[in-house]
Design brief:
- The chain is α/β, with parallel strands linked by helices.
- About 40% of the residues lie in helices and about 25% in strands.
- It has one domain: Vaccinia Virus protein VP39 (Rossmann fold, 3-Layer(aba) Sandwich).
- It has 10 helices and 7 strands.
- Strands 3-2-1-4-5-7-6 form a 7-stranded mixed β-sheet, sandwiched between helices.
- Strand 1 (about 70-75), helix 4 and strand 2 (about 95-100) form a beta-alpha-beta unit.
- The longest helix has 18 residues, at about 20-35.
- The protein is globular and about 45 Å long.
Length: about 230
Amino acid sequence: MTENKFVEEVKKLGININDTQLKQLNRYYELLVEWNEKMNLTNITIKEEVYLKHFYDSLTIQKVIDLYEEETLCDIGTGAGFPGLVLKILFPNLKITLVDALNKRITFLNEVIKELNLENIETVHARIEEYGTKNREKYDVVTARAVSKLNILLEYAIPLAKPQKYFISLKGHIEEEIINAKNAMDKLDVEITKKEEFLLPIENSSRTIIMFKKRNKTNLKYPRRYSEMLKKPL
C-alpha cells in the first residue's frame, strides 16, 4: 500500500489525516525498521506492507466504533504498538495506555513516543492479568490485536473496561473462537454488539473485528493468574 493509497483508504474509514500525522507515521516506520535489526518486533518490514498490514489494519477498528467520541483506551499485548500507537497518532483526543510484558518492546515504544512528541500516552511493562487487577474499570475502550484466543483474551480485557463500555478484538478467522468463548462471555457478563468481517485492500486477506460490550462490573476473582487461565479456561 503506497502512502497515497493509504491516505485514500483511511479517509474511507472516516478518519481525518494531516501532513503532521503522515510524517509521524513515516518516522514510526523508520524506527520500526531500525529497531527491528536489534530485536524481533515484526516480520513485516517492506514499507508498503507495513502501511497495509500494520498501520491501515490497526485503523480498521474505526469500522465498529467512533474513536473521536471516546476518551481513554488501553491496548493490551501491544507489541510494537499495533493498534495502540497508530491510534494515538490518528486520534490525538485519546488518552492511551500501552501494556506489554516484554521490556525491550516498551523501550522501543518509549523511543517512538519521544521522537514523535506524543502526549497523553503511557507505556506499562507488566503481564496483562497483573495490570488488570490493579486498574479495574478504568477504560472506555480496551483493544487487542492477535494476542490470544478469545476465551482467555476476554478474561484479560474485560476487567479493565468500564461498565457499559467496550473491548474490541482485531483478528483473522474467528468463528470457532467465538463458539468456544460463550462461557467466558456469560461469566464476564459481556455481549457482542458489533462484528465486522472484511478483506484488507490490495491483498484481500480476511479480517474480523468484534466489539464486546461490558454490562456490569466484573467479579473480583477475574482476571485469574495465567496458570489458572491455561489450566481451566473460561
